[in-house]
Amino acid sequence: MEAHAERVYPEECCGLLIGNLAAAEAAETIKSVVDCVALDNEWTPEAVAESDADLDADSKTKHRRYWIDPKDMMRVQKQARERGLNIIGVYHSHPDHVAVPSECDRAQAWPTYAYVIVSVCNGKAVDIQNWALDLSRQFQPEAMRVSSSTSSGAKDRMPVSA
Question: What pLDDT was estimated at residue 145?
């Protein structure tokens, strides 16, 4: 995720998190990420909603917005299901901004998904935070634990593009 964010800076990167969801205590869900699939940011000026008409010009570009093509979402979901996995989250970057969700991020978010944001300042990833929607559709920080890969090699990884 960090390398992807640095590579496309100063634009936002985006991708999908592939893995499993498991029930835990206190009605919590444990998200286990098995793979990250880097995607192209398909945001275009035509994607700007009328409600965004009052935004400045830079806020209507890939520097401040990302869009995942539904065809990519379907392709990745199919590949994940073939491996007994699911899409369990989305990641994207915030160029020269903190790793905190924006109102646009919240408006487009889905319940149960993890939302990882990578802050990239001057082309270098400086922070990474994970968020989840609560029952009031507000983002709350969600703890992350990074563990070493159990993959037996690159042949087990999903392709990052098709």
Answer: 78
